[in-house]
Amino acid sequence: MKIAVSIYFWGEKLDPAAVTAALNVRPTQAHAKNETRASSTDKQVTAKIGMWGYSTDSEIDSAELGEHILFLQSKFSDSLNKITELKNIQDSCIDIFVATELNKDGADYEFELTPNNIVALSNFGLPVRFTIARVED
Q1: Taking the CB of residue 47, how many other CB atoms lie within 10 A of it?
Q2: Whole-model pTM?
Q3: Helices 65-75 and 115-122, interaxial angle, to 10°?
């Protein structure tokens, strides 16, 4: 199972450098509107909207959701109060991504959010979105 917890901001006029400066956290991915960059397949793409994101997937190698949530909280602990002050943000969220392998025996997977995890997520003041993917072995 792969788990990542990420924070994302999007906006037509979003300035990734300004978000980085305000939060004092380097993003794991960011681009301004109309910025051209290579995709994962080396195709040149032009961003239709600005985006700033930080993900735990390259920081933590753990299948425990709570560890990812608490890491994200600690990474942003000094800047939680600045999130609501960011300029030119049209959409934002905390994304909880869980990818599981398809079980041949049909077993279910589960993950847990403790009360402390829920409080930690709430402290960001952002919507929480869940992305669940099932992948082939």
Answers
A1: 15
A2: 0.90
A3: 30
CA–CA separation, 35 and 54 (whole Å): 18
What is the Cα–Cα distance from 79 to 123, expressed in whole angstroms?
A: 11
Is residue 82 within 8 A of residue 94, CB to CB? The reply is no
Among 1, 2, 3, which residue's Cα sits nearest to residue 71?
A: 3
Strand stretches in the chain, DSSP E: 2-11, 29-31, 36-38, 44-46, 50-55, 91-101, 128-135
For residue 80, give the DSSP letter.
G
Q: Please name which of 8, 93, 5 lies closest in space to residue 52, comparing C-alpha atoms.
A: 8
Helices (H) and strands (E) in the chain, counts: 3, 7
Query: How do residues 81-124 score in pLDDT, each as one tens digit?
Result: 999 899 999 999 999 999 887 766 666 777 889 999 999 999 99
Q: Using CA atoms, how far apart are residues 136 and 100, in angstroms rounded to an integer?
A: 9
Tokens for 52? 């700033």
